[in-house]
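Bench notes, bay 3.
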Amino acid sequence: MPIFKKRNKNLKEDERLVGVMISQQVCYYLNLYSIVNEFSKSLVLRNLIYTWYKEIKKEHPTDQLATTLLELVRKRWHIQKIINQTQTEEGKKISFNGFKRELNMDLMNRGIDQAVIDRTINLLKE
């Protein structure tokens, strides 16, 4: 894991880079469209994402998604407890604290807001 991340100098402090794989046909069209209309592909994609974000956030507010995440995590911990019971080797069992550490790292690596991570871990019961 790199200690110092290479930062895109065009990104503002409150922005994050999101990448996406698209088909070659769509990519060619996006390239052509952006050249003909004289604006960047990033602008096209950013506008689409912001429009989607405004619409979807009304239906699925952050609190609702955070609650759904907590339910998912509870299911995963329940499954892990069953796995722990069937494991004969101690090294393969994961403690509750170990599970929370792994969860924290996984969610951080997936770009989840630390406040949501902390809330999820604090509400998770053994």
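Next record in the batch:
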Amino acid sequence: MFLYAAAWPPKRLYAAPSATASAQVAGTENCYTYSMKKSEFASRSFLNALGVLAYILAITRLLSNKSFFAKIPESIAPIFILLLLIISASITGFLVLGKPIALYLSGLKKEGVIVFFATLAWLATFVATIVAVLLLK
């Protein structure tokens, strides 16, 4: 959410879709509209899911490096793993939930929910693709 704080409140990107919405927006000073196109849902959610996949691949690469863990003292290894768990949950949580929560809190509940479920759908697609590739080997 930290990265979204600099751009809060969201800028008006598109005109309000109807005359009544325009009147509502014009009557309030701090009200911003943000209308996302369907292609923006797909691209935003795809980039978020791709970021999660890239992060998972990087962490997997780190954890599969046995020479890296040979250098870590046995007493510090549990601390490292727990910190990695917390950092991983924060990063992936931000990538999956950051934009949907920002949209939801700005009053665009439908758009926030759509971006969230589209991101989950992309992640499920990545998992299915990886499983299919592994089963075909």
